[in-house]
Specification:
- α2 packs antiparallel against α6, α7 crosses α8 and α13 crosses α19.
- A hairpin with a 2-residue loop joins β8 and β9.
- With 593 residues, the chain is α+β, with helices and mostly antiparallel strands.
- The strands form 5 sheets. The protein has a 4-stranded mixed beta sheet. Strands 10-11-15-14 form a 4-stranded antiparallel beta sheet, covered by helices on one side.
- It is built from 20 helices and 15 strands.
- The N terminus is likely disordered.
- Helix content is 51%, strand content 13%.
């Protein structure tokens, strides 16, 4: 089955659009006509006239199209700096019979997209192509051409102009009907209709991609880019953000990303993604599912095109310098940019901080206690809650998994920090675990601890390491006083007070974490419900504040009963909450310790 013509859907969308504007303008006209009618029949009413004129003015203002303000998505590339890239873009445009974009921007994603910007109501403006540096980092030239041909297919079919019209109409509907719940079906229906049209436009654009670059390049690119978009998010979360939280960022993220794609961590990520089924399609999706796009492309009968497997980043002039420059732009607040070879030292600092936290919060912990802890699963809960207080009161199906994660990381960091103090050297690479080496022999502390926790590895490995490095059986992590003070600092300082039957807690609102259990009964959590609370008493108006209230299934519709907000001062960030019971107040205090 080929692509169904989108003409009917486009006509329906435009018809819906015209009907909306006609009705809205008709209502505005009626509001303007009513005062005149009252005046001519000698029934003039001043207040009603003012209200009608104000209503007509607000409605007319809501319908007026706004000129789109364009914010550059990245930094602009020029043909003078990157002639090979622009020659390749021009080649795709000429073969498709469309004109070049007016501007090309570099963005971080494993993606490419086009827009028509700067116009009014989809009219006028400039064509803009945004190319992901992540896409250039992983695609070959054929896959990259397929991606660019798909985006130019939107230009060729007029999708970018129509998208401007539809987006302007959605905005007008939001401004006009946003406060009227009864009319919420109007923008929802329009959205469903236009998103269905958008999904058909994506398949039409895929046709251009297959014709120009070939089915193999298109299909491999679709699969490759979907996987690498997930890899990029995982890479940032696991390899960059922990370092960035300390003000340190590797000076070339994309070099690290390419190395990450060959790592053991990403191999594990691929297995996890392979075991996860794709999310079901939704009527509000702007794109067909990956499976639908692949099935559609495989049905197309087009001649095959030879693959060009050269890396796409070779189109850039001095790609490494550009990647470094773009890394600096992505992290403008970084204190320091370091080569990847120095990242291990900063990871070591993070692990040492975890070891300090273990020693401060479990003062009698030592290597001897490591052996006892990993063999006694009953002791894991208390240990994990001491290290990570947010687990206090944690009532959810994944509690055991969370506890094990905390125990595994804390013990790994503690063990590695002590062994490194006695002569072992830290080694790491993007996507690879933090390892220790002694005379060329690698040791993976995380793998050792996982083996002990699972019961698949004997503790004699630890005894051999300890004997080899001459480490005392009761060795503990050496803790400076300032490190102890920092490790024992509460996540949020919580004060509990009791006034008759009322129990209150006072804490910094931005740092306060509510226990992961029902706020009303302490039962297993079902969801967090965003709830607005009035600040102050019945006779006071100190505004409102929004709190995400944890509730069980039985109390899912009663989050407003969880608290009374006695006081909130934005300048000091201090909030005073009246809570259901003293036990729950103590739980809040312990989970923020």
């Amino acid at each position: 089955m080929g692509v169904r013509s989108s003409t009917v859907r486009a006509m329906a969308a435009v018809g819906f659009l015209l009907l909306f504007y006609a009705v809205a303008l008709g209502v505005a006209g009626a509001l303007l006509s009513l005062p005149y009618l009252l005046y001519t029949t000698h029934r003039f009413h001043a207040l009603l006239t003012v209200l009608c004129l104000a209503g007509a003015g607000v409605l007319s203002w809501s319908l007026l199209p706004r000129r789109e303000r364009f914010v550059p998505p990245g930094f602009r590339l020029t043909e003078a700096e990157h002639p090979r890239l622009f020659a390749a873009i021009r080649d795709v445009a000429q073969r498709m019979g469309t004109r070049m974009p007016d501007a090309v921007y570099l963005v971080e994603d494993v993606n490419a997209y086009v827009r028509q910007v700067g116009g009014v109501f989809g009219l006028g403006g400039r064509r803009v192509l945004s190319l992901g540096l992540g896409l250039l980092a992983v695609d070959n030239l054929s896959q990259w051409r397929a991606a660019v041909a798909h985006e130019f297919g939107h230009f060729q079919s007029g999708d970018t102009w129509l998208a401007g019209v539809l987006c302007a109409t959605r905005s007008a509907m939001g401004r006009t009907l946003g406060g009227w719940r009864f009319f919420s079906w109007v923008p929802e229906t329009f959205l469903r209709l236009t998103q269905a049209l958008s999904r058909e436009q994506e398949l039409v654009a895929d046709t251009w991609s297959v014709r120009l670059a070939g089915k193999r390049a298109h299909l491999s690119g679709l699969r490759w880019e979907a996987l690498h978009a997930a890899a990029w998010r995982r890479f940032l979360a696991q390899e960059v953000l922990p370092l960035a939280s300390r003000g340190v960022v590797p000076d070339n993220l994309f070099e690290g990303y390419r190395r990450y794609l060959a790592s053991a961590d990403w191999a594990e990520g691929l297995r996890e993604l392979g075991a996860t089924s794709e999310r079901a399609s939704c009527p509000y999706d702007s794109h067909p599912s990956l499976a639908e796009r692949i099935a559609f492309a495989e049905r197309l009968d087009v001649p095959e095109v030879p693959l060009d497997e050269r890396p796409a980043y070779t189109l850039l002039s001095d790609a490494e310098a550009l990647e470094r420059r773009f890394t600096v732009q992505l992290w403008p607040r970084a204190v320091e940019f370091i080569p990847w070879s120095e990242a291990g030292a900063h990871w070591r600092t993070l692990w040492n901080e975890t070891a300090s936290r273990v020693q401060a919060r479990v003062p009698d912990f030592s290597l001897a206690r490591v052996s006892a802890l990993v063999k006694d699963a009953r002791a894991w809960d208390a240990f994990a809650e001491a290290i990570h207080p947010r687990l206090v009161g944690y009532r959810a199906p994944d509690r055991a998994e969370r506890v094990r994660e905390v125990v595994a990381h804390a013990v790994s960091a503690y063990l590695a920090s002590i062994l490194a103090e006695h002569g072992m050297v830290w080694r790491t690479s993007p996507g690879e675990p933090l390892r220790l080496e002694c005379e060329g022999e690698p040791v993976d502390p995380a793998a050792l601890v996982d083996g002990w926790l699972e019961g698949t590895l004997g503790l004699e490995v630890l005894e051999r390491l300890r004997a080899r490095l001459s480490v005392d059986a009761h060795a503990a992590w050496r803790l400076r006083e300032e490190e102890r003070t920092e490790a024992l600092a509460p996540l949020a300082a919580v004060t509990v007070e009791r006034e008759g039957d009322a129990v209150t807690v006072r804490a910094p609102f931005s740092r306060l974490g509510l226990p992961h259990c029902c706020a009303l009964c302490g039962g297993d959590i079902a969801s967090h419900v965003e709830t607005r609370f009035h600040v102050g008493g019945v006779l006071r108006d100190d505004g409102d504040i929004t709190i995400e209230v944890p509730v069980c299934q039985a109390h899912a519709h009663q989050p407003h009963k969880a608290f009374k907000v006695r006081h909130y001062e934005e300048a000091s960030d201090l909030i005073t909450l009246e809570v259901p019971t003293l036990e729950y107040a103590r739980l809040i205090q312990r989970s923020n310790a």
